């Protein structure tokens, strides 16, 4: 906290206008030794480029960044004007908080100001107080803000209601609340959820979480609108069915029994916590600290800030979507579901309305977003239920994700260390945990958190030993200290003796032998025992992932998503930028083939500069090849870049969302035009099999393409009529359903008859049962997320093609997906 006391407060000032108010507060700063007098002019010039009005009668004038040399030491001063001073049209200020910031030491003051802003009664009291210590206490965070009484429930118009009991192990936490919200949003009805004398918007995730509904408690649902009766019936069914929660997972803490048998025999110093993910880790400790994200408090142009907010939300949603897909493919639907819940926060109407209101009051998008998120996080952290309080980390994770896109310069990305370590942190967000690489993060310990946190769940799915809730003593451990982490017992042993190190090493070696064998053989081809080969390649979406794929044993890239170049920006990438990115990927593969999928964005991946209209059914709208054909110059620019990059290595082009032969013909015509314009040689051209019409007309399409790549995720949602991200239905959108397998078999038969080949680039290719069945169906290429490559190759080497065909035949004959999943692997 900076040095701030009553000497920096002037009460009862009378000023003629904003100009004089700024001069007086600058004089206070100068008299306290914070600034040179010339800094006052910088503060005045700042007002011409930014609005420093915060709201609730508070303004925070400060100088321009280029004048920081005039700041002697960071400080603040407060000018109270009980009669008020007109700041901007419609804005009256009673507290002028002048800021001289040479660093970020003043940030806590701004944080405390946001709490004052949330309580108009406190702001009104400070505007007229005769005690300067009261203002000092408020800005130091020492003034207790009165809890506001809950508003009386307004049930006018709500003509339907019913009572339900919330089951599940942890009540209405993030995932079941997301499930509830998604069901509510599918109906034309307003939903009010009543609990313990309070109410929440049933279509708002943040609002629901604030209720803090624990397991076994009753809630009353109220509805009004054209579909109110149907909405209540659907919500009752959803609640009765458990709101998408699997019994025993997620949230179940690991067993307390040890799976490795290691018990220390010496007196190594131990820090005890809560077991979160089983296993042993041995290595040096490395502390991880999140950096601060700094944003401007105010902005001059609210419309520009609203646009920036929308772009940041789109970029964050795309990040989360990709993370969801990666974790889902690697660890399953339930492990990935939290990231869908995170997406729901980004679409929360109450939260966004509050942020937009702050922006219209003159706050920057980043400041308004952080203010609202911090307020919601604080509300969640106050819950008595530890699981619900733990969900504050999820909201904080989402908040930081968006804030990184709103800040000018940010150094907040999770950076993996160069050498293997046991990571120690105050806490880890789910996003941090999902990015952990077991090759470099041997295990992790956190001072906060619990075994039911989503980070703990993801750690278990990755096989990373983890301990949580170890307390502040953990944060005092120095980097480099040798340690043994017992994830089963919830203990971190510091400076262990040689005897304990040897015993732990032996126990760990036994557990990791299988994994090590798979990793060591990752460069060997996926040759079945009878000599049949299946190509195992990677799905990637960034330039640096090409090299990672090769290192993981990939035999090429079966799907390179190009969307990363087009999202989170105000203008599309030009041809040269795209060419350099594609060329870098091709070169990183060192002669291995790469399939570059052309742009696949649309209603579900909004891009502001394309000015796409809102679509009620984005997955059925203008996306993929449809969008590209409607914007030929955008498409041609990408195609020219791809053809230019093909000179550096074996490139194949793949079109997404093809539904008709006419779509394919038009795309091929533009591809040929681009090829001729750059003078490139022809390359193989294939299509994604995502739309059922392509699978049903595979013989006709096979005559027009060089290969097929089945996108099982989208094909499944179109065949089953289930949004694959829908929390209440997504579990039923299983690509191992016999209907999907039979369509894939049709595509393979048509391709083989035409002398073409079929690959699969959906999530099904990355799971052992799916991979074996696909190989038995005749799929020649399996493309998957990088972490799955070594294990799938190892599995393929243990079977014969006859075994795979027999398994596929049984799967095709099954009546439902449960029967398929019950089939034993050969």
TrEMBL record:
GO terms for biological process: phosphoenolpyruvate-dependent sugar phosphotransferase system. Its EC number is 2.7.3.9. Its main location: cytoplasm. Pfam families: PEP-utilisers_N, PEP-utilizers, PEP-utilizers_C, PTS-HPr, PTS_EIIA_2. SUPFAM superfamilies: Enzyme I of the PEP:sugar phosphotransferase system HPr-binding (sub)domain (SSF47831), HPr-like (SSF55594), Phoshotransferase/anion transport protein (SSF55804), Phosphoenolpyruvate/pyruvate domain (SSF51621), Phosphohistidine domain (SSF52009). GO terms for molecular function: kinase activity; metal ion binding; phosphoenolpyruvate-protein phosphotransferase activity. It comes from the Bacteria. It is found in: Cytoplasm. Residues 159-246 form the HPr domain. Residues 2-142 form the PTS EIIA type-2 domain. Keywords: Cytoplasm, Kinase, Magnesium, Metal-binding, Phosphoprotein, Phosphotransferase system, Pyruvate, Sugar transport, Transferase, Transport. GO terms for cellular component: cytoplasm. Its cofactor is Mg(2+). CDD domains: PTS-HPr_like (cd00367), PTS_IIA_fru (cd00211). It is an enzyme of class 2 (transferase). InterPro entries: HPr-like, HPr-like_sf, PEP-util_enz_mobile_dom, PEP-utilizing_PTS_enzyme, PEP_util_AS, PEP_util_C, PEP_util_CS, Phosphohistidine_dom_sf. It catalyses: L-histidyl-[protein] + phosphoenolpyruvate = N(pros)-phospho-L-histidyl-[protein] + pyruvate. Belongs to the PEP-utilizing enzyme family. PANTHER family: PHOSPHOENOLPYRUVATE-PROTEIN PHOSPHOTRANSFERASE. This is phosphoenolpyruvate--protein phosphotransferase. It comes from Solidesulfovibrio fructosivorans JJ].
């Amino acid at each position: 906290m900076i040095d701030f006391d009553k000497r920096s407060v002037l009460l009862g000032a009378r000023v003629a206008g904003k100009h004089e108010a700024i001069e007086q507060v600058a004089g206070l700063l100068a008299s306290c030794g914070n600034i040179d007098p010339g800094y006052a002019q910088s503060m005045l010039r700042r007002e011409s480029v930014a609005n420093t009005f915060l709201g609730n009668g508070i303004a925070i004038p400060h100088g321009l960044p280029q004048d920081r040399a005039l700041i002697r030491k960071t400080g603040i001063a407060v000018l109270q004007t009980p009669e008020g001073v007109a700041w901007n049209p419609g804005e009256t200020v009673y507290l002028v908080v002048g800021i001289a910031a040479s660093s970020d030491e003043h940030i806590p003051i701004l944080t405390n100001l946001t709490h004052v802003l949330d309580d108009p009664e406190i702001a009104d009291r400070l505007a007229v107080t005769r005690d300067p210590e009261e203002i000092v206490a408020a800005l130091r965070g020492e003034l207790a803000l009165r809890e506001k009484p809950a508003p009386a429930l307004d049930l006018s118009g709500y003509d339907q209601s019913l009572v339900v009991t919330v089951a599940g192990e942890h009540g209405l936490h993030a995932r079941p609340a997301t499930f509830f919200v998604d069901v509510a949003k599918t109906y034309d009805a307003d939903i009010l959820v009543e609990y313990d004398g309070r109410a929440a918007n049933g279509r708002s995730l943040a609002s629901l979480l604030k209720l803090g509904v624990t397991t076994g408690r009753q809630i009353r649902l109220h509805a009004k609108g054209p579909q109110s009766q149907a909405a209540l019936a659907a919500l009752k069914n959803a609640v009765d069915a458990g709101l998408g929660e699997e019994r025993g997972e997620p949230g179940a803490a690991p067993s307390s029994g040890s799976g490795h048998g290691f018990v220390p025999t010496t007196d190594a110093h131990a820090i005890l916590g809560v077991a979160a993910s089983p296993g042993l880790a041995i290595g040096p400790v490395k502390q991880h600290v999140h950096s601060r994200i700094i944003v401007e408090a105010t902005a001059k142009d609210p419309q520009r800030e609203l646009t920036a907010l929308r772009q940041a939300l789109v970029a964050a949603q795309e990040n989360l979507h990709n993370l969801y897909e990666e974790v889902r493919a690697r660890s399953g639907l339930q492990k990935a579901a939290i990231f869908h819940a995170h997406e729901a926060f980004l679409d929360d109407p109450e939260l966004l309305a509050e942020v937009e209101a702050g922006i219209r009051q003159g706050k920057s998008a980043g400041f308004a977003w952080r203010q609202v998120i911090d307020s919601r996080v604080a509300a969640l952290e106050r819950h008595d239920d530890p699981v619900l309080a733990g969900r504050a980390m999820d909201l904080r994770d989402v908040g930081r994700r968006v804030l990184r896109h709103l800040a000018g310069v940010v150094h907040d990305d999770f950076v993996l260390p160069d050498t293997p370590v046991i990571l120690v942190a105050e806490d880890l967000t789910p996003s941090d945990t999902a990015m952990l690489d077991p090759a470099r993060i041997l295990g992790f310990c956190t001072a906060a958190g619990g075994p039911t946190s989503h980070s703990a769940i993801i750690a278990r799915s990755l096989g990373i030993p983890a301990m949580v809730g170890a307390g502040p003593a953990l944060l005092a451990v120095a980097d480099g200290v040798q340690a043994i982490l017992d994830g089963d017992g919830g203990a971190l042993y510091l400076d262990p003796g040689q005897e304990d190190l040897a015993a732990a090493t032996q126990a760990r070696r036994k557990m990791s032998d299988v994994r090590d064998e798979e990793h060591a053989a990752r460069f060997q081809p996926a040759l079945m025992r009878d000599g049949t080969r299946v190509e195992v390649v990677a799905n990637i979406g960034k330039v640096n992932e090409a090299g990672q794929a090769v290192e993981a044993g990939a035999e090429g890239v079966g799907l390179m998503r190009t969307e990363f170049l087009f999202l989170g920006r105000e203008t599309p990438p030009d041809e040269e930028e795209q060419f350099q990115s594609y060329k870098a990927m091709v070169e990183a593969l060192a002669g291995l083939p790469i399939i570059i999928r052309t742009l696949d964005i649309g209603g579900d991946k909004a891009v502001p500069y394309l000015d796409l209209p809102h679509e009620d059914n984005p997955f059925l709208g203008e996306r993929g090849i449809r969008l590209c054909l409607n914007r030929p110059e955008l498409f041609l620019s990408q195609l020219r870049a791809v053809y230019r990059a093909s000179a550096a290595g074996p490139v194949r082009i793949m079109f997404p969302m093809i539904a008709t032969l006419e779509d394919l013909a038009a795309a091929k015509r533009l591809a040929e035009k681009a090829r001729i314009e750059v003078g490139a040689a022809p390359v193989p051209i294939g299509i994604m099999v995502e739309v059922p019409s392509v699978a049903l007309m595979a013989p006709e399409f096979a005559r027009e393409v060089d290969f097929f790549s089945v996108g099982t995720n989208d094909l499944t949602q179109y065949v089953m009529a289930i949004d694959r991200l829908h929390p209440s239905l997504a579990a039923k959108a299983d690509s191992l359903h016999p209907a999907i397998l039979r369509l894939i078999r049709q595509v393979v038969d048509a391709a083989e008859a035409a002398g073409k080949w079929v690959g699969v680039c959906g999530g099904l290719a990355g799971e052992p049962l799916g991979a074996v069945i696909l190989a038995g169906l005749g799929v020649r290429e399996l493309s998957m997320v990088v972490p799955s490559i070594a294990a799938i190759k190892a599995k393929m080497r243990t079977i014969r093609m006859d075994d795979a065909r027999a398994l596929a035949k049984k799967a095709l004959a099954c009546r439902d997906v449960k029967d398929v999943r019950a089939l034993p692997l050969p």
